[in-house]
Design goal:
Rossmann fold, alpha/beta, about 400 residues, 3 domains, five-stranded mixed beta sheet, seven-stranded mixed beta sheet
Length: about 400
């Protein structure tokens, strides 16, 4: 069935009563909310979504093989093309300039649904852009996205970091490659007066975790000159480098990836902090099971531990145990700075896991600060799914 006004756009119809969430601003349509017929459509194909009575609700991309069957791009009957993408990207960039001012040269430039571009992530590292296309609909538009980004920012290089596991759920191949310009090795950039390095080709996700920017500042504000800091799951050294800039006496960087540690080590050297840093490659989950020396601050930034809703109870137990063992490494009166990037784990349940961790560790913890994802990762009010990062700082007695 096609729309009489736009013959090239196929119409998909919602089941009776399935329109409430969309009318409140949500951008996803689940497969069980659609009437039959959409199953024969091509992944990534543009469709118009109408309610049970045929009233137009929005235009988006369909994927009949995904639980999220349609992701809306617009509430209007308008072309979703290079011009559309350019306007949305430009609007997203202006928001970052407003929020971050000069810091907007290094930021998450586009954050998927929150910027009206479902499935698209764009991180900016000054003159290098790193993209993630996580849906079939966005994959179809990617050549036009690259053209629009090229026109707007004239970057030196663009890398498509399209190897996130979510692509497999969309039936898309996993790949990571240079798609524009030239890139010679790692990307060097500055944030808050600290030199960092990202590896868009060989690194995880986009090569650097920009979402923790404000949390790194917050954690650094609790560092004192004599402090010894343990940075667990350090990746490329973000938190530890902020601690070193805050004049920590010593930072121990720990990660399971030798590649990540090599980037962290290079960044530490670039900032002239090598005499106050050391690096260890190990399985942190196993490491924390053994007793060890106490630290004035322990930073815990593990990977997402809940990959699906069925894994949430196990993830909460893992957060409890991991934080309990981390607390055992905090000197009396010291600081635990801990995070969760599992979007499926609600903040209230995560905080409860920290309370249980303190009880299990036999420690008294007092929360003194809380944080979340930095402003260049805005949370769409109608889509709580766009909020994922939790951060807390506690004094451990």
């Amino acid at each position: 069935m096609t729309d009489n006004n736009s013959p090239e756009i196929t119409v998909v119809r919602l089941r009776k009563g399935a329109d409430h969430r969309l009318r409140w601003g949500h951008l996803w349509v689940f497969s069980n909310e659609l009437q039959d017929g959409f199953q024969a459509l091509e992944p990534g194909q543009l469709v118009d979504v109408v309610d049970f009575r045929g009233s137009f609700l929005g235009r988006g991309a369909v994927n009949p093989h995904s639980l999220i069957a349609v992701r809306l791009f617009t509430r209007k009957s308008e072309a979703v093309d290079k011009s559309f993408l350019r306007v949305r990207i430009q609007k997203a960039a202006k928001l970052r300039e407003k929020l971050l001012d000069a810091d907007a040269k290094v930021c998450r430039l586009v954050y998927s649904e929150s910027d009206g571009l479902p499935g698209l992530i764009v991180d900016r590292f000054e003159v290098v852009l790193v993209l993630q296309s996580n849906t079939a609909g966005m994959d179809r538009l990617l050549p036009q996205v690259i053209e629009a980004l090229s026109d707007l920012f004239n970057p030196r290089a663009m890398v498509a970091a399209n190897d996130a596991p979510v692509r497999e759920l969309e039936g898309l191949p996993l790949e990571r490659k240079l798609v524009y310009g030239a890139l010679d090795g790692k990307v060097r950039f500055e944030q808050d007066g600290i030199t960092f390095l990202a590896d868009p080709i060989a690194g995880q996700k986009t090569g650097f975790f920009l979402d923790q920017r404000f949390n790194r500042r917050l954690a650094a504000s609790f560092v004192r000159p004599a402090d010894r800091v343990l940075d667990l799951f350090c990746y490329t050294g973000g938190f530890g480098l902020y601690a070193l800039k805050a004049r920590a006496a010593h930072v121990t960087f720990v990660d399971a990836s030798e590649t990540a540690l090599a980037v962290a080590r290079e960044a530490v050297e670039a900032n002239g902090f090598s005499d106050r840093a050391e690096f260890f490659k190990t399985d942190i989950f196993e490491m924390l099971k053994e007793p060890g020396e106490p630290f004035d601050m322990v930073i815990l930034d593990p990977p997402a531990l809940a990959k699906s809703r069925t894994k949430v109870p196990a993830a909460l137990r893992a957060y409890r145990d991991l934080n309990a063992r981390a607390m055992a490494r905090v000197a009396p009166g010291g600081v635990l700075a801990t995070a969760s990037c599992s979007g499926l784990v609600h903040a209230d349940y995560w905080l409860q896991s920290l309370r249980e961790a303190a009880h299990k560790a036999g420690r008294n913890m007092r929360f003194v600060a809380r944080g979340g994802q930095s402003p260049d990762h805005p949370v769409l009010a109608s889509m709580p799914e766009t909020e994922y990062l939790k951060f807390a700082i506690g004094i451990v007695d």
